[in-house]
Specification:
About 0% of the residues lie in helices and about 50% in strands. The chain is mainly beta and about 230 residues long.
Length: about 230
C-alpha cells in the first residue's frame, strides 16, 4: 500500500499564548437568552487538522478543548462570554489577549464556525467545522476476535491507541499519531520504537478501520479489517 503524507500548514500554535480562564460573571449570566443552547460534541475541519471539543465539565462550566492533529498541541478554555447574532450564538473564549470565537446556529447542530483573533484584533484562523469528521473513536475488533483496538481522546486532548491480542493477552498503548490523508481516507501513524502502527479511517464508513503494522524495515507484518464493537 502506497501511503502518501500531506503536509499540514500550522497557522497558529495552540499552546503559544498562556491559558486564561474567564470568569462567568453575573452580567453574562443575566444576558443569557432563555432559549440558550450550547453546541456540544467533537468538531473537525475537512482536513482533520483541527479538532474542537465542546462540553460541560463536572462543575457545569462550558469548556473548549482544541487539538492540532499535526503537532499534538492542545488548548483548554472555559466560561465564554455569550452573544447572539440573528439565529446564531457566539461564544467568545479568552486566552490571554487572544480570542477564540465559536459561532453556532441550533438549526444546524452538526456544524460550527471557529474564528481566532490575535491581540490586535486581526483574524488569524477561520474554520468551518463539522461533527463526524473527527478521528475514529471506540473499540474495534477483527472478524476472528483476535485483535482489539480502542481509540479515544482523553481529557487533555491526547489521541490514544490501545491494542490487545486476545489470545496472548499482550497489550500496547500508543499516543499522539501523525496524521496524513490518501484520497478519502485518513491515516493515523502511531510509533512504537521503530515499529509503526497505522490506523486507516474513512469518515464515510465510521464503523470500520483498517490496521497495518510495519516492522523497522517498512515491511507490513500485520493487516486487519476491524469493525466498531462499541463506542467509547
Amino acid at each position: 500500500m502506497n501511503i502518501k503524507a500531506i503536509a499540514l500548514a500550522s497557522i497558529l500554535g495552540l499552546g503559544t499564548p498562556a491559558i486564561t480562564e474567564v470568569a462567568f460573571t453575573t452580567n453574562n449570566a443575566s444576558a443569557m437568552p432563555t432559549d440558550f443552547v450550547r453546541a456540544t460534541g467533537t468538531f473537525a475541519d475537512v482536513n482533520q487538522e483541527w479538532e474542537v471539543r465542546l462540553y460541560l465539565d463536572q462543575f457545569g462550566a462550558y469548556s473548549y478543548e482544541a487539538v492540532n492533529t499535526k503537532n499534538g498541541s492542545s488548548l483548554t478554555l472555559k466560561n465564554p462570554t455569550i452573544s447572539r447574532e440573528e439565529q446564531a450564538y457566539k461564544y467568545t473564549f479568552k486566552n490571554g489577549k487572544y480570542r477564540y470565537q465559536v459561532i453556532y446556529n441550533p438549526s444546524r447542530p452538526k456544524s460550527i464556525f471557529l474564528y481566532v483573533f490575535n491581540p490586535n484584533g486581526n483574524l488569524i484562523l477561520s474554520r468551518n467545522m463539522v461533527k463526524g469528521y473527527g478521528r475514529p473513536q471506540g473499540t474495534f475488533i477483527d472478524a476472528n476476535q483476535e485483535w482489539v483496538v480502542r481509540l479515544y481522546t482523553n481529557q487533555s486532548g491526547t489521541y490514544i491507541y490501545e491494542g490487545e491480542n486476545t489470545k496472548t493477552r499482550s497489550k500496547l498503548t500508543l499516543k499522539n499519531p501523525k496524521t496524513s490523508r490518501e484520497e478519502q481516507a485518513y491515516i493515523y501513524s502511531f510509533k512504537n520504537g521503530q515499529y509503526s502502527y497505522q490506523v486507516i479511517y474513512n469518515p464515510a464508513n465510521e464503523k470500520a478501520i483498517a490496521l497495518y503494522v510495519f516492522n523497522p524495515n517498512g515491511k507490513v507484518i500485520l493487516t486487519r479489517d476491524m469493525t466498531l464493537d462499541y463506542d467509547v
